[in-house]
Amino acid sequence: MVRISNNLVGILNFVTFLLSIPILAGGIWLSRQGTSECERFLDRPVIALGVFLMVVSLAGLIGACCRVSWLLWAYLLVMFLLILLLFCFTIFAFAVTNKGAGEAVSNRGYKEYRLGDYSEWLQKRVNSDKNWNKIRSCLQDSKVCKSLIDDSNNAPVNEFYTRHLSAIQSGCCKPSDDCNFTYVSPTNWTKTNTTSTNRDCNAWDNEPNTLCFNCDSCKAGLLDNIKSDWKKVAVLNVIFLVFLIIVYSIGCCAFRNNREDNSWKRYP
């Protein structure tokens, strides 16, 4: 008689196999349609994920439904390593995103961001010239500052100061408030003599492809986005981790069933 646990493992892995097809197709589409390095950034990881899910789900499906014990054993081993890896990553994600937050500024609708407020591990990632050159190129290609100009190009200074800006817009598209520059437009500021010790003041330039993309505040704004996204991913990981543990437990039952059935066949 077919065991319930074997059926459940087979059904779950069949669904996973179906899901792997659009993931793999999406990765291939990204690799062919992307016109810049930023657009092709995710193609290889997505393709790798699609292939991984397809191979693992096939191993679990065949191992459970066709009673191939060695395939089911390999499937359970991969599942165990995946659970362990996911658990470690979740703990790591919570740890590195524990520090850092935007600073509220008096009479401003936006916050200011300081690189030193974030974890050292994240700071090292964005302080690497190799990493930041790629990130900066992607930020410029995304035209995140252009949307700021389109929305409030002719806005008076008082109206601009009350606007809610995203962390990246605040850090990359305007100079820091302590520079005391004179407002002309959201991305056009007149430099004035300032005693500020903030080195971002010297890095600012009105040229659309420069602005504050070389500023520490821009790096901090990006890290604030990453922090927010990683926390959401970490919460989803906890849910996914519980699901994987349940599937792993069912798979262990299916593996035990396979061994019992093989024993009966060996000793009739």
TrEMBL record:
The chain crosses the membrane at residues 12-30, 42-64, 70-96, 233-251. It is found in: Membrane. Its main location: membrane. Keywords: Membrane, Transmembrane, Transmembrane helix. One of its GO terms (cellular component) is membrane. It is a multi-pass membrane protein. One of its GO terms (biological process) is auxin-activated signaling pathway. The keyword Secreted does not apply. InterPro entries: TET_plant (IPR044991), Tetraspanin/Peripherin (IPR018499), Tetraspanin_CS (IPR018503). It comes from the Eukaryota. Belongs to the tetraspanin (TM4SF) family. This is Tetraspanin-8.
